[in-house]
Every structure is written in structure tokens, then in C-alpha cells.
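Journal club prep — side note

Before the paper discussion, L.F. wants everyone to see what a predicted structure for a comparable chain looks like in C-alpha cell form. Sequence:
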Amino acid sequence: QVQLQESGPGLVKPSQTLSLTCTVSGGSITTNYYYWSWIRQPPGKGLEWMGAIDYSGKTYYSPSLKTHTSISRDTSKNQFTLRLSSVTPEDTAVYYCNGGNSWGQGTQVTVSS
């Protein structure tokens, strides 16, 4: 069974770039037809799909976040990474990675000076 684990800073200052990594075990991120996503949930709100990278490395982004979101991968480490630039307090959320029919446990990120 695929397992995912998010890692990254819990606190980021406004205008900085947030970087989160999802480490995948029990399966390869290059497995055909798998998509690996980042999803977040701001406090008191629903889940928001941010973007994904597929098995070939092609990326997909939410139109509302496309201008300051980047997703990349490191196949040697079986990881994929989210970068969110110019963060504001509105980017405060629990961030999840998802793929292979599994979810990470989520990591809280707070944007505050």
C-alpha cells in the first residue's frame, strides 16, 4: 500500500516561498497513470485542489493558483515538492499530498510575521 508523508516548515513569513515535500513509499511516483496532487484546507473552509504532477512529470495547476504555484519531483528520492511563492496569511492551511489512492496525514502551515 502506498504511503505518503508531507514535510516542511510549519511557519512561513508573508511574501516568502513555501516549500513542502511529499515522500512516497510503497510505490513509485513514475508508475504509469498515477497522479500526485497537493490539496489544502484553510481553517473553516473546504478542500482546495492546488495542482498535480503525473507519472511522466507533466504538471497541472489550479487556475486560481497557477501564477504562484510550482510542483516538481525527484524520482531518485520518490518525492514530489510544492512551492508556493509570495504567500499571504490566506495561504494558512493544512496541506495534504495525495496519490496512489492514499493521502498523507497533512501538515499545518501558518503564514504570519
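L.F.'s comment for the group: The chain has a mean pLDDT of 97. Keep this in mind when we get to the figures.
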